[in-house]
């Protein structure tokens, strides 16, 4: 959603600058770093951020700093304070080194040189009379608290009161007197004056005497700040990681906005944006929504207001598209707070460049914008299926943008990469983007004009193209340089200003920004004439890529102690890239390795990870990178390499990534870094790299290097699977990644079924050796394994694993709460799986098992929202099973339980699902009018949530048309509506059958063709009757493909479509109609007719799975029977419709691959070889 307040600090990493007097309070500092700071960092990790104070003094005792680097400590310190929002200062008894009032001695030369370099490079005030004799600590405090007023400062003073003891020879008194004796009167006075000055400015000051007091004070202060800045979201989008990603987008937009410099050309673009969006903002009026009163609106949009639905802002990389979009975003959200604005900045995280993740997150935000907050629920099999087939994700996205007026902003759409099932080129062709978009939706996209996405967008008729303007006003160019130099006391060199207006590259803000950031640091330790010569070389660069090569070489020369010292003026990048080989030879040292490691990593690297990697690469001992050296590099490549909220260092601009790719092109360097990173993460401890980091990075690098054996070993390692089985729901992107990796491995001969079976066997063996055994790990493993296998189309093997896990449970087994919840999920999963397999007795049995387990949790007061939602879904499944098994007397009680306050779900699909169940109940009681109303209510609810063309909506349409046909309503309106509904259902089923290529889809399509054909045969129009015969012929062809020529249903359709049997047609149609309506579909496209024993049901006897005997628990059977004394009424057969209060589920058969459909289909006898099908088709056509 759009930003609502600039003061809302979402997703900010906590990097307070830690200031103290060197050599003082060492015991306190060690305690803070090993205990308190780690505790605060752990708290931040749960909120998607980190707590890592910046301490430049930590390696001071080692004296490993390079001579030149130690002279820069004050300059680097002030730079870091300038970019930090927080400041922590600990003061004890010491004041620190400072220059005397008179001429200083040679021993204080380092202090004076630090001040001189800082004054020369942006901080001239340090040499003013007021500050010239201050210690470095006081200068840091002055910068943080007195000169700047835009950061939060916290001071902790050690109580200097002498120990309360009469023994003057006690250790405490001796230490105190010794400290005072080493200080001069001047130092003690300066320290008292500094503390008094801090207190007089009303800054927060805490006094402590012991380590415990200091710990409690810092925890109290910082836990409050962390919780205030990072409130736990009431309702997650679709996992913790998605919520964190949304915060990353907010912070990224804020950072881009801070770099924006307004100008006349950009103002024109902003006006064009507002004009383009006027139809939405003008027609969007505040309104009331039943789910979210006061927060929604209606849209009376005139389609003539705007013919275009997409505005494309294009230009070359670095022209300012993203900063312009971020600036517009804030101003628009302020002026139009009622209009939902969903923004997505590609490249802010790993999932931000994945198409499925982008569509999923946008869909979730749009739904929340129009429905309000609702509880998350366990999607069960739905979440396993939806992301596998991209067209389902697109359908959900299309339905979401149809909910109401909305604006979508996608920045950097050219950064989208391959996703599960689509290559990078297919993603960039944008066939997934709805064409056209709904009239109440406007979309703003930024892209480079050299990318395939630009060609794809400009080929659409609903796209308006705006080119990002070139900048030419000297004052604007000067403002951009100054903003990125961000040193108020440093003036731009006159030579730079004179050359800016005459170079063609200076119309690119990124070019100017890079020059500006280099002006912060390139002149340090350089003479003025050398700095001017360097800037001249920068300005003469013919492209931003060439400029980046020069800057990278400058970084390597200045900061890497092992780097060569060639003149970078010889570096020239041509379009043919002929000189890159010689450039690569000049690059060596820890600076270049750092850039390459960050660039090659998948999600970025934390500072501890980078330093540990450098040690592994040989930068240890005398070559070890010291704290001051690292801070100096961080100061130089800011803001091009920034720290994300979770502490990961990432490259923030694609121009730098492209330059590094250019320098690595044609070498084995990139693969070498992939191998280094894979080996590092595999051997690293969990204190350095969490399991989430390992599972994010290791498989990626192994895949990039083609190490598929190692990839299989990692994914099938018990520790890896244990983490994934307990954390997969929190990381939706990781779910896609795991399925993607296993898909690649299966293509290369690695069997996932065997791998998971071996894991189950190892886990069982380990449990047998432990007393008491922890069965929760086994049940979590079975859930994870079954979900992955379902995504891979291995339904039968997934069932085996779940049954194996369930059969371990015994009645007398004592389980803890975690094990009980895990077993409940296994039983819930089995119930859902049997719904998909159309096995009603097994479904009912596991519904009862799950309800019993949930009852045990409730009795022990261990139930949670998740448990209640599972119970809610199991009750819905049980309701459907009872309708099938003639026990209609218990259904009203189930309705009452489902709709009770105890189990009432706040999800928008709840009402539609409940009405759908009620419709089938009323239909069973022959209350057709009431059933019709319920169907229509369910249809409206589902169509709004899923969209018009979703299979679940088409199924309700089919049932509504069936009801009208069964009622034999002969009005013209009813007949026309029936034909309209059936035609739409056929269109949806044809699309599904084409996308999924499954035999079950063909069954459902044949049934609807037959139904529409029967309706048309009763028409008065000869054309309609001819079409009806054609539809029946098509249905016959499909059934011959699936059932063969001799099947009874095939022969019946043969009679109908053959003109020689005109007299028998009416009788046969009635038989076929009654047969086809023998099942009421409550879910995905399935076989909607009951097959003969030689047909569908025959295959069940061939299965090799041993299931437990279907025996219902007495407690629930008795409870159901006792709630109503009604007699059994009409028998209704098992319905294949899939419903729950959480929203309809998807058909698990959609997971199956085309070539494996017969292998896992419960109706295996229906699947024939391609050769036999073609022969049967020819025979049928001859006969007909």
Automatic annotation (TrEMBL):
Domain Nephrocystin 3-like N-terminal, by residue range, is 304-446
- Enumerate the Pfam families for this protein: NPHP3_N
Keywords, in A-Z order: Repeat
SUPFAM superfamilies in the cross-refs: P-loop containing nucleoside triphosphate hydrolases
Q: By what name is this protein known?
A: Nephrocystin 3-like N-terminal domain-containing protein
